[in-house]
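Q: Convert this sequence to structure tokens.
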Amino acid sequence: MISAVLAFAATLLERFIGYPRPVLNAVGHPVMWMGKLIEILEQNANNPAISAARRRRNGFVMLAILLATTAFISLLVVWTLRDIPFGWAVEIFLASTLIAQKELGMAVKSVADGLRESLTQGRHAVSHIVGRDPEQLNEDGVARAAVESLAENTSDGIIAPIFYLLLFGLPGVALYKAINTADSMVGHKNERFADFGFASAKLDDLANFIPARLSALIFTLTARLTSGMDHKAAWRSAKRDASQHRSPNAGWPEAAMAGAIGVKLGGARDYDGETVELATMGEGKDIIEPEDIDRALKLYSNSLWATLAVLFVLALIFG
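A:
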């Protein structure tokens, strides 16, 4: 199947259907399968008793095994589907499972809804989408975490998968998700993973370089078409503040969203009991409320529609 048609069809399907709960309960999810392989390899190769240099080498080997396995399976699936009736429909479904529009929007909306009920419910909802300690967050901290997660995961969970799906089809998006999953599991700069996860973290940074900046551009252009949004502040914030983020990529969508909806993101946050000071992004108000999450979700939704429209045009041209 032509990648542009596949990307449009998969994005459209996931936008409205998501990943069916019965399928999840029956067989799990592709990212869960990748995660299980990473977990097995990490347990056997990341022994704290061995040297740091060897753990770093083992991290490279783990990543190579993960990517080789993912490439082999995804290519085998594509080749098999091309020889069976309606294989194209299965390919569309499989590609759609690696995009996360529906679940991300629902998860972030639940934070706004939870905060309107109580801080406790807001903390519980945000614990499902961020790594920081929710019990240390006040209402502003919970809302801030939700908006930051929405912005960053728009890039990692939606724009990047679509980007690689467009370029390389199902194997491309599968390999990207393997890289991103490895980074989320072992790409941490703590004592356990600093060496073993080095390769995963660096490759994820490389894989997300273009999608992160593309996400900032999409937020900016969509803000231009969305009432109450400031597209000039979105791009100004991205250019000025993104490089101050400790991640080479996450700052781009976060800063663009901050500027568009008129808030400041970043600042101090707690991870595993440790306070981390991060740069401030955006130039709007300091205190974020549930209504600001609603505004972020509006920009997010419109950005998804804009992306879908572009994919439709590409499918017409190259289909």
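The chain has one domain: 3-318.
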